[in-house]
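Re: Re: ligand-bound prediction request (bumping)

Still looking for help on this. To restate: I need the protein modeled with D-malate bound, output as structure tokens. Inputs repeated here so nobody has to scroll up.
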Amino acid sequence: MKVNHHALELEQNYLFSEVAKRIRTFCAANPTRELLKLSIGDVTRPLAKVITDEMKAAAEEMSHAETFHGYGAEQGEPFLREAIAGYYQKRGITVDAADVFVSDGAKCDLGNLCDLFDADNTILLPNPVYPVYYDTSIMSGRRVIFAAGSKGNGFLPMPDDSVHADIIYLCSPNNPTGAVYSREQLREWVAYAQKNGALILFDAAYEAYIRDPALPHSIFEIDGAETCAIEINSLSKTAGFTGVRCGWTVVPRTLQYEASLHDMWFRRMATKYNGNSYIIQRAAAKVFTEEGLAAVHKDIDYYMENARIIKAALTKAGIHSVGGENAPYVWMQCPDHADSWDYFDHLLHACGIAGTPGVGFGTAGQGWLRFSSFGTRETVTKAAEYLSAL
Ligand code: MLT
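Reply:
Sorry for the wait, this slipped through. Here it is.
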């Protein structure tokens, strides 16, 4: 038996596992200290009642022979795929329900999509970015190159015509920096992909947090994206589904490559996945109703107020930060050019605040730290008191 040697090229721990390990060590050594957790982007608001009521109704159906459901449709239940297409339609974006694939979340889809591509592909990643893109590309033996984000370009790197890439991951709003590409910038990425015969994997998991009406929520707002982009999204952050699990991927039949990625993804999902549970899909469809969207937007407003509080505290302390305006992450520059992990340890031990070291998202994140605004108001307010006095 031979193991996948590419998997051994990864850091020993996934970023958030390493952060969790350091937090556990801190808590064990300081049992009386309060932990102010602004690290992993995990929601803290309970699910909206309108959504849990729908889950209960769906669970009740499962207990009667006449309304019981066994295996579901491979691509996801049509009622949910229609609801997702309708969500795009509300913004004037055309997505065909037939191109929507329901799944148990964006992270899983991002990893699973690697099944569709030859190992001989060059992957272009913004740096810094969600570590799953890098880790899954390395695990599957692909070459990875980077487009560097910086304070200078607002952490929104743009394509370089002298560099060839086959697969480009974009995350907008960006995790970890909170930066959001404009429509004009996304047009440039689509033009680059078309010129290079490349594919864009567009992660829109944080689109519901965009406040500025001028900013795009989907790659499919850009003409031509339907020939060169796949979009991945999730209800984890939009509707508090981190513990419920439901996401989707749009794989247009209009993509132009040597084979239909839509058909390949259908085949892959039919073979390796049995679909999300009926109960969860019913709850997910409820999110896209008028009452569902009104309820989830209240929670999104709550988290965005947290982001505002964190940002205001940093500003008061004279610390530079970006993000937090159209995304639930605030990206702060560590004072005195401190190293990301050193500053993470310092904040944890001095104030009991856990952030996420920026360098964990890529080398260009060195010297930065990310705060998640998904904590409770109490945690965020206490953390803000410490931060404003840094
Ligand atoms: C994060 O903190 O970046 C996210 O919660 C991780 C994830 O969504 O998998």
